[in-house]
């Protein structure tokens, strides 16, 4: 889950003791895309369907029940309205049960254009560092693309001559947002529209940790001498591109469970450990955290500031980084100065030293670091870090 994704859920430590099932649910992004698709069909045909098939970002097609479907005449302009009730699965977060709503209307003489807006209950971005435009709606890039793809899939006839305005809203979203960390990140007035696959998987500590251990065990039983720990799907795809020579069994999504991953690798006497990460989780590893989920501990902003200073960032920027809420803020500001590689190399070196101190063993450690789009930034070997110490 990305840094913005963590803000969508504030988990009490005691929550992890509850029994949870394994039923998956759907993201706010997937439900918004389904609502937008249904409303577009309503604008096209004059009637919003009771069910709509939505294409998820992961390529799956899923049928959603539509509520509150209607086509209204707003003066001389027609508008279609549809909502999807968000099902968070067996581990619902603050948005479980939310009515993810879309209103679609024509954008005259702007053929093919799909303008995406945030309505009531969708947060507004007020700070840099989230990868979204300040002043715009808190709709993440993947959901933005997915909403447009679904609208385009059924709205061809309308888009041939005009554009479409799609307004996503969430009744009660502002109240839901109070149960999240959004305000701390500068997302005000509502929730975030999230999701890189469209699927919500239960955040079951025991189940996820067990799957990490199992992944290492499977690799070892197959005779693999390397494992590649990644923090999610995007970093796994990135790592696979960097290490095409390795068998698929070597790749284990450890998520937030650093301790479980490394202890399993040490126990199984894995010779080579790779870690694929982006700046947020990389910083958490520098901090020596056994679990890197947002509820466990915040980003160490002093650590980020020290790393920025070490690569030559000016003093005023160092202080801004020290006051910022996300690691992404530091990464984006330093990129403008051409310090991307140096900054991430500095963090990777610190992460290697921290991981080595926490989890001693005979393995060799390599850090693979990518940006928020999964593009390569730097590869850092343990040997070069220890040699420079």
TrEMBL record:
Q: What keywords sit in the KW lines?
A: Cobalamin biosynthesis, Methyltransferase, S-adenosyl-L-methionine, Transferase
Region span, Disordered:
1-25
GO biological process assignments: anaerobic cobalamin biosynthetic process; methylation
The record's listing under Gene3D superfamilies reads: CbiD-like (3.30.2110.10)
Catalysis: reaction(s):
Co-precorrin-5B + S-adenosyl-L-methionine = Co-precorrin-6A + S-adenosyl-L-homocysteine
Which protein family is it in? Belongs to the CbiD family.
What protein name applies here? Cobalt-precorrin-5B C(1)-methyltransferase
Species for this entry? Accumulibacter regalis
Gene giving rise to this polypeptide? cbiD
């Amino acid at each position: 889950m990305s840094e913005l994704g963590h803000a969508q859920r504030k988990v009490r430590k005691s929550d992890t003791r509850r029994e949870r099932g394994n039923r998956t649910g759907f993201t706010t992004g997937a439900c918004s895309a389904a609502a937008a698709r249904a409303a577009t069909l309503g604008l096209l045909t004059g009637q919003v369907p009771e069910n709509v098939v939505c294409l998820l970002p992961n390529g799956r097609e899923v049928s959603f029940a539509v509520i509150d479907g209607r086509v209204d005449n707003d003066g001389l302009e027609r508008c279609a309205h549809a909502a999807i009730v968000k099902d968070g699965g067996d581990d619902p977060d603050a948005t479980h049960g939310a009515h993810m709503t879309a209103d679609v209307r024509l954008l005259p003489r702007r053929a093919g254009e799909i303008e995406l807006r945030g309505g009531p209950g969708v947060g507004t971005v007020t700070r840099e560092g989230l990868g979204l435009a300040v002043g715009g709606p808190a709709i993440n890039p993947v959901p933005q693309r997915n909403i447009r793809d679904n609208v385009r899939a059924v709205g061809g006839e309308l888009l041939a001559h005009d554009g479409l305005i799609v307004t996503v809203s969430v009744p009660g979203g502002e109240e839901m947002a109070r149960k999240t960390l959004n305000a701390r990140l500068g997302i005000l007035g509502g929730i975030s529209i999230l999701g890189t696959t469209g699927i919500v998987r239960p955040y079951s500590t025991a189940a996820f940790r067990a799957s990490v251990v199992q992944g290492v065990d499977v690799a070892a039983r197959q005779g693999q001498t390397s494992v590649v720990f990644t923090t999610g799907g995007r970093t796994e795809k990135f790592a696979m591109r960097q290490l095409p020579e390795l068998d698929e069994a070597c790749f284990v999504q450890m998520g937030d469970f650093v301790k479980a991953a490394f202890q399993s690798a040490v126990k199984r006497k894995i010779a080579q450990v790779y870690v694929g990460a982006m700046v947020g989780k990389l910083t958490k590893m520098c901090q020596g955290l056994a679990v890197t989920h947002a509820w466990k501990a915040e980003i160490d902003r002093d650590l980020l500031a020290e790393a920025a200073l070490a690569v030559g960032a000016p003093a005023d920027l160092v202080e801004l980084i020290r006051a910022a809420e996300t690691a992404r803020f530091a990464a984006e500001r330093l990129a403008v100065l051409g310090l991307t590689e140096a900054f991430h190399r500095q963090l990777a070196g610190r992460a290697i030293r921290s991981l080595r101190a926490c989890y001693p063993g005979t393995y060799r450690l390599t850090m693979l670091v990518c940006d928020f789009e999964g593009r390569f930034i730097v590869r850092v070997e343990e040997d070069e870090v220890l040699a420079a110490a």
